[in-house]
Task: structure prediction
Amino acid sequence: MPKKVFITGASGCVGHYLIEELLAKTDYELYLLVRDRRKLQIDLRDRPNVHVIEDSMQNIGNHKELLRTMEFVVSTAAGWGGEEAFIVNRDKTIELFSSLDPLVCERAIYFSTASILDSHNQIIPEAGEFGTDYIASKHACLETLENSIIRDRLITVFPTLVFGGAKDKPYSHLSKGLKDILKYVPYARFLKTDGSFHFVHASDIAQVVTHLLTVPSVPPSPARLVLGMQRLTAQDLVAQFCEFLNLKVGWQFELTPFLVDTIIKLFRIEVAAWDRFCIAQRHFTYDVVSPETFGLVSKYPRLANLLAEVQ
Result:
């Protein structure tokens, strides 16, 4: 009998790529939780192994009997702010995983965020103390899940900066704003700052998650996988943007942390505690995994691959 997979947030950017990858690589029965089935841009005709459940995470308790039959669960659903963030990202996500039958469930994949980790993939207390609603709720949820009844089969993935989207898939928040970012490159090329980060494309996330759902065993608990490509510095970013726009990088003015702090004070700019923490941090780098880690081939290994699709 084919394995059953319950997927939340199925109508989102990552959800679309994941569904497409699972349909291409497995014979699994897919159960897709979506608030509005009209947002699914995948042609599911002649797909008897795909079941669309039109409901929200707030009502996950209505599906406990179904969840107890699932071998696999992938939770990508997220609330982005306010009270909804804590309801969806903490309370209802904990309820979702608590509804699984330990005798049936083989693997549970939970999508968190790299923002709650330090450079060694350890949870930072600041994320819970003064992170945004989204970050604080993710922080609270992870601690509970890693001590739950399914902790030995739990895999938490921490996407870094997520890009993705196409004509037949919704765009991620970053990909939506990529064109606007490019408008500022002619001015930003004159600035120099110290910082670094990782990015990952939703297509590569889908590759990794599908692999995790098809291999015989799970990594040792607690399994924390930060998804990202090679580290990029702020200067790498400017240089690659300029190369794409055929611009030269010449003299640059160094934007130091002291200068940024001075500008904030001088112009009385309101900066939240989490934003101030991020400004001081500057480097958002981790021990990352990519498709290559698992013997796969990344479709978007470099920033240039993303820019090549910008219309």
